[in-house]
Amino acid sequence: MRRALLAIALTVAGLVALLSFKTASGEPERPTGAAATGGSGASGSSGTPGSSGSSIGPGAAGQPTAAAPSPSPLPSGARAITGRVASTVYGPVQVQVVVKGRKIVGVNILQRPDATEMDIQIGQYALPQLIAETLAAQSARIDTISGATYTSGGYINSLQNALDSGA
Q1: Is 121 inside a domain boundary?
Q2: What's the CATH number where 82 sits?
Q3: pLDDT tens across 19-63, in order?
Q4: Residue 13 falls within a domain, yes or no?
Q5: Beta strands at 78-82 and 86-88: parallel, antiparallel or unpaired
Q6: Do 59 and 91 meet the contact criterion of CB atoms below 8 Å apart?
Q7: What CA–CA distance (Å, rounded) separates 150 from 19?
Q8: Which of 167, 108, 107 is nearest to 137 (CA)?
Q9: Among 37, 43, 68, 86, which is most buried by a count of CB atoms within 10 Å?
Q10: pLDDT given at position 68
């Protein structure tokens, strides 16, 4: 009899816990950021901001993605190449590479997943590492960041598209 009561109590407790579990909202992702209007393909350096370093750009630290940082001029002889938007499970990722000659001198993040606080934290952790690896490797042949596999994959896809477009 005790076992039966214990089994029933545990079943009820499990059902209550299961029914009270909150899931993420089912709202579709919408493109945000500076590249939301023209993210279907690669573009050249026509009026796109760039820098000689790296930038995590719009949407960093929970700021609205529509408020882009002030454009910084490209170094002389450099050009900015924007990669295609890479769709990931957690949202779009788009990068812009700044190249001077055949050398990558900077990477700007134009779009990144930012729907939740966790997306923002992952981006703040992973994107600077991905940028540093890109500058060191001088290619898109870089490792993904553990814990940010989807964001890393989107970054690498957009980066490779930009590099292929600029070749």
Answers
A1: yes
A2: 3.90.1010
A3: 776 655 444 444 333 333 333 333 333 333 334 444 554 444 433
A4: no
A5: unpaired
A6: no
A7: 29
A8: 107
A9: 86
A10: 38
